[in-house]
Amino acid sequence: MNTQEFQIQVLPVKDKLFRLAFRMTGSALEAEDLVQEVFLKVWNGRMELESVQNIEAWCMRIAKNLAIDRLRSKHWQTRTDAEPVLEIAHEASPYTLAEQHDTLAHIRQIMNQLPEKHRQVMELRDIEGLSYEEICEVLGMTMPQVKTNLFRARQAVREALLKLTAFKN
Question: 10 Å Cβ neighbour count for 51?
């Protein structure tokens, strides 16, 4: 792999890598460092890239593993305010915007309370938009494990939101 191929195939994954690292570490500085470290690892291992079928998933897996290593080494806890970037329709009324913002805040809280595997699978599928195959590769799970964890995560979020809605009414 030469520099041009690296720029075309690897650099476009930068934002996804940053979001994953940021959610896992809770720190923008740590996330930036992790992304740079991923790029270094990929560049140094560029001769292996010919055998890699999905470069994006491979990079995401490297980022996940590096983030886990850093968290373990520093005894960090994932911050509850490390939130995924979710879009809200800005053309809605102020009341609707406030309601959507409130709902997203509740979803973030609920997701942060999920077991780690459930949260990771849900973030990669529903927020990052990765395919099931890519999630399998990133997390080192089988397809049934990914589907089961995603189902349980979504079910837990749904039930918590229904309880919240019932409590409000």
Answer: 7
Which residue reads 């939130």 in tokens?
83
- Count of C-beta atoms within a 10 Å radius of residue 115: 12
Instruction: Tell me the DSSP string of 41-84.
Output: HHHHTGGGGGG-S-HHHHHHHHHHHHHHHHHHHHT----TT---
CB 97 within 8 A of CB 14: no
CA neighbours closer than 13 Å in the CB half-sphere of residue 10: 25
DSSP three-state, residue 155? helix
pLDDT digits (tens), the chain, 169 positions:
788 888 888 889 999 999 888 888 778 888 899 999 999 988 888 888 778 888 888 898 899 888 887 776 654 343 334 444 444 444 567 777 777 778 778 888 888 899 989 998 998 888 888 889 888 988 889 999 999 999 999 999 999 888 887 776 5
Q: Which domains does the chain have, with CATH numbers?
A: 1-79 (1.10.1740.10), 92-169 (1.10.10.10)
What percent helix, strand, coil does the chain show, rounded to 5? 80, 0, 20
124, 161, 94, 100: which is closest to 23 by C-alpha?
Answer: 124
| pTM strictly above 0.70 | no
